[in-house]
Amino acid sequence: MSHQRIKSGNHLLFVTEPGGHIVRSGKPVEVTEDLSEGIQVQPFYTIRIVGGNRVISEGAVTFKLIMKINRVSFLVLDTLTLEPGEQFTRTYDVPGLMLAIKAEGEHGAGLNAVDVAVFGYKF
Length: 123
Fold this sequence. Notes:
Layout: E1 9-15, E2 21-24, E3 29-30, E4 39-40, E5 46-53, E6 61-69, E7 72-82, E8 87-93, E9 98-105, E10 111-122
């Protein structure tokens, strides 16, 4: 996102590819890895994060929402564990400048597919 003035309203800041993001058993993966600095959330008042563990997944997946400072993971904002077919939606006051999302499949769970979208809201 550029440094231009952000208009009021909702903005899609991040979304996984239509096929979802693959998460292997016991191996943490940064779902937002294409954004090395993280998702820029600083211009917004609140963010809404929506995610899901697809029905075809072979086990539970744990999501970690992580604040980033200078490209370094800093503090965990929230942790959520979803079984196959479960979804979540959460709204947060903006937690700093950047946000990363990691996912990890439980040990022995095989392959899992997850989806995540992040929206920013500005008055």
